[in-house]
Each structure stands twice: as structure tokens, then as C-alpha cells.
Amino acid sequence: MDATPRRPSMADVAARAEVSYQTVSRVLNEPQVVRPATRERVLEAISALGYTRNRAARALKTTRSSLIGMLTDGSSLFGPAETTTAIEAAAREAGYSVLLTTVGAHEDGAREIGSELLGSGADGILVVAAHEGMVPAVATAARSTPVVAVSAQAPKVDGVEVVGVEQQLGARLVVEHLARTGARSAVHLCGPQDWFDARARLDGFQRAAQELGLEASVIGPGDWNPRSGYELTSSLIAEGALPDAIFAANDMMAIGVLHALHLRGLRVPEDVAVVGFDNTVGAEFLIPSLTTVSQPFAELGRLALERLLCLLEGREVPVNTPRTLPPRLVARRSTHPERTH
């Protein structure tokens, strides 16, 4: 009967590479001090044996686990999902692993899961704090470990670093674009108001519309999904209250807007221009292709991780490192071309 397989050890790597245990340790921790030929031999042995570092043992020796905890609400929506993916990619590039934990909707559950994540030995925690429901988890985690929240609004928790994308600016870019296309009126289909992104986009829309003199109104809230965009637009059509342009809180709601207009024989952008937010995958293949706002998710992931690593390592954040990142408008065929005069 075959023996039960066991996990390869550093001693096994050392024996295969014909080096000392200490040399293997140096290759793993200080590769620059090992001669290239020796380092290559050790790396080949690691690959051949399928050796992986024992994170728990390393944590006992160094008091650091190289493990980053990440809390999310498990949302499959484009923005939170892309943010989560970007953080994971940035952590891997920096040599950290990510322990992803999903927080439920109830406050007690959020606190309990936050506490469980602390018990895992994570060096620090990143929270994708998209809405009010994530604040209890942020507060729990921040009591005993460094926390960086990725959010459009700072959670009311002392000592928590916050990074995010300038959602208000994104909405302003939309309004400025619409004004340059000649639109004189616009309706914003707002998102759920317990979401920080939705609040910021609504505020940015209202401020920019007032400053630029557009006739502006707001309906909703929608729930980020196409059906709510469809239903809100259908109500506008039924009331005979169509504006020159409709700005949906995200691309999914904008898809519902396009569908409602199409079913009633209304042309986009000739009868009504439509704008979304997020630059969701496939937005350019809608008919017509959707004008929207693109968020720098990859850069946001790197920024969040850099902020957290600075906290963990006790070093100053590099000069001119921003706390927020600007989005950009992607103009397509669902809005009129901007006027050049």
C-alpha cells in the first residue's frame, strides 16, 4: 500500500538541490545574496517538488504572515467585483496572499465575520466598503489591525485609511459632456442611496447641472439592475416627461433604459441620449454603443495595497500619492458628438 503523500519540506528542497537548508532559506527570503547558479538550482528543485512555504510556521518566526485579509459583501456587480479582482492581483504582485471573506447583510454577522478574519492571522485588512452595510465590519476590523477601506465615502470609523475613485467627478464629466453636445435637460436615474457610489454620483450630477444651467431632475432609486432602469424609464415615457438625456447610475441600469426606449420606438441619441457609469465589459457592443464612465480599477487595487503596506511597515506614504483617482468619460454613439464651437 502506498504511503500517504506528505507536503515537501525545505529539507527536501535542500537535498534535491544539493545545498544546505540555510541556502534554501536565503533563496526564499534574500535571493539577491545567493549566487545566480545556486539560486537557479534551488528554484528548479522547488518547482520539481511542488514546494510551497508553510505560512503558519513563517508567521511564528517573523510575526508576519504575508497574508492580507479582504472583506467584501460578495456582490457580483461590476464595480465591487472589479475592485476585488484588482486588489487580489496587486497583492500577488507584492508577494502577499489574500484571504477573501464575504460579509452578510446583517450587522451582527458583519461583526462576527470581521472577528473571524482577524483570527486568521492576516497582517492587515482591506475592505471593499461600497455601502452602509459594510461599516460594522470596518469598525470591528479596525479595533486591532490596520485597515484600508476602498470606498467613495469615508466610513465613520476612526483610524481607517480610505481610498477610492472620484465618483462625483465622474458624474460631472457626464454632465459636462451632455452640455457640450447641446443637451438642455437631463434626468438622473439614481442608484440605491445606502451605496456610497450612488450618493456621490447623484451629488455630482446635481452640482454640475446647477452650475452649467441644465434643467435637471432625479428619479429612483434603482437597484443597479437593468429592470429598474427599464421601469424608471417606462414611467418617464408614460408621463411624457422625456428629457434630452438620461444618465443612469450604472451601465446595467442603462441597458434597461435602452430597452425601454427601443420598445417604444424611440431613437438613441436622436430622441434621447443615454449615459451609463462603469464601462462594463461589453458596453461598446450595445446598440448603440454606450457612452459611460470608466473607473481605473487596476490602479485602485495597487493604491489600496500600497496604503495598507505603508501602515504595516510603518513607513510614510510616498509624496504625491493620491487618496482618490480620477475616472474618465468614454464617449460613444449613445450620445451626440460634442460641438466644436
Automatic annotation (TrEMBL):
<keyword id="KW-0238">DNA-binding</keyword>
<dbReference type="Pfam" id="PF00356">
    <property type="entry name" value="LacI"/>
</dbReference>
<dbReference type="InterPro" id="IPR000843">
    <property type="entry name" value="HTH_LacI"/>
</dbReference>
<dbReference type="GO" id="GO:0003677">
    <property type="term" value="F:DNA binding"/>
</dbReference>
<dbReference type="InterPro" id="IPR046335">
    <property type="entry name" value="LacI/GalR-like_sensor"/>
</dbReference>
<keyword id="KW-0805">Transcription regulation</keyword>
<dbReference type="InterPro" id="IPR028082">
    <property type="entry name" value="Peripla_BP_I"/>
</dbReference>
<protein>
    <submittedName>
        <fullName>DNA-binding LacI/PurR family transcriptional regulator</fullName>
    </submittedName>
</protein>
<keyword id="KW-0804">Transcription</keyword>
<feature type="domain" description="HTH lacI-type">
    <location>
        <begin position="8"/>
        <end position="62"/>
    </location>
</feature>
<dbReference type="InterPro" id="IPR010982">
    <property type="entry name" value="Lambda_DNA-bd_dom_sf"/>
</dbReference>
<dbReference type="Pfam" id="PF13377">
    <property type="entry name" value="Peripla_BP_3"/>
</dbReference>
